[in-house]
Design brief:
This protein is mainly alpha-helical. The protein is about 55% helix and about 5% strand.
Length: about 600
Amino acid sequence: MMKFNEKEFTPQVMRVLQKSIDYAYKFNYAWVESSHLLAALAEVPSSLAFTLLNSEQLDLEEMLIDIEDFSSQVKTKKSEIKFSPRVENIIEQAKVLAQNNDKNRVGTEHLLYMVLANEASFAAQLLREQNINTANLRKKLEQKAYLRVPERRKAVTPASKRNLSGKVSETTTTPTLDTVSTDLTKAAREGRLDPMIGRTREVERLIHILSRRTKNNPVLVGEPGVGKSAIIEGFATRVVQGDVPADLRGSRIMALNMAMVVAGTKFRGEFEDRLTAIVDEVTHDKNVIVFIDELHTIIGAGGGMDSVNDASNILKPALARGEFQLIGATTYQEYQKYIEKDEALERRFARINVEEPSEDETIAILQGLKEKFEVYHTVKFEDGALERAVSLSNRYMPSRRLPDKAIDLLDEAAAKVKITRKTNHSKLDELKAELKEEERKLQAAVVSLDILEAQKIEKNTQKLVRKIDNFPLSEEDIPLVQESDVYAVVSNLTGIPLQQMTKTESERLINLEKELHKRVVGQEEAITAVSRAIRRARSGVADTRRPLGSFMFLGPTGVGKTELAKALAESVFGSEENMIRVDMSEFMEKFSTSRLIGAPPGYVGYE
């Protein structure tokens, strides 16, 4: 447990710290969290924090019920209860605040101020649930306690992080990181992330690695489109829901954009200063976990491949000490090309392989995402459309991976239906047009810094959004996305005629001889043998891991050997372009085989 020197704290603060331990023990917590600290501040009388919280009409009983909802089933001995890293950080910051205000001891006002300053904490969330504005409360505290709050390190803040007056809207312990990253836990709290279906094994493995003492930096490795980023979003959602171990509750998952870190660093040393500032902020705020998509981009970022000052070399020491928790995601190819080559960097990560989901798993994923697409496009999906999106994308888009390609098909089919099938709900269209106009006016008011007008327009905008969300639509008004729509989208993307795609496989295979004879005259024996072999392989009794068949066509030039192969590709796989042609006359010399199997090590083209 964190040791406290009584000379550093007022008697009221010592009672608050003891009371917070009592709350943690009462509700079966292994750690004293910020919520326990806030509850104790609201209960210990004869203090400025107690007076201020009660003046805001804080409902302590309701807050304690919310705290109990997240309690553990396992009872921890009182002597074993520790202060969480976040609470330790709050106490240390309170000491600094007291020193900056020429105080010898930390008072309840300093402790409360730092609790309020941690916007991502559970305590701040509990206050917001009771409609208590933490920013306003901090201002009142500054006025009543005459607090001098030092300005934080200046950082370039994008417009999205600023309020109407152009100032940063929230006090944060990670100002530099916030300007170049996205808070995934905040997005999950606001319902802006898509639900994650399945992937339980990968998320559990991710949690296990993050809970380790050393090498607690997982890296997700998989083909593009298999759902690596979706796993991180699913993990962020679990953190918000509290469905993670106690030491990960209250964590902030920050998606770092390396391009924004590099942007604007014109002179030598600027990039290093910015990245070092981010590392310092994450090191001091123990509840931040950084996520970097396309992890290989840290190699050479800010300094070139051979530079000692690129991002990877700056991060290595912090990763080795376990002070900077990082989750990465990259493809097999990029991992092998960049990460594996740097053994010192590779050994600091624990690898998690993310495989492509099966067709059944992908259908379940689409079922989970269906509602989001229906709300966005104002359409309905029939179940057959979901299954058809998976099967057709798997068959006609082999170069891409599930579930990404199936989701794209579904999205495009919904967009096509929405555009082509106009409905009669003109009132809804009027509301949407009115909303766009209000958003335009809001943007103009923000630019002109007319705060009162902007607040008025924002209220109107919120009313319109509620009207649109609650607008009654009958089943007849909502267009239906059917299997035929998915077929049409695939036909447009691949160029395969719609009539050929809509034929069932059994119809194509039964009439396979007729289809082949349209292009190859004669050759009855060869065509019959090939057709029987294809039908036998596609009947479902053959091993799916083996090829459909191996055929050797023998005969003089011009009798139709190549033409039969093209006709077979067109009839079975949709197009003669789905055939890879290797002309062995091009590989007669020994050295020319490198064009077939690749160059050996040491030669140009090996990598």
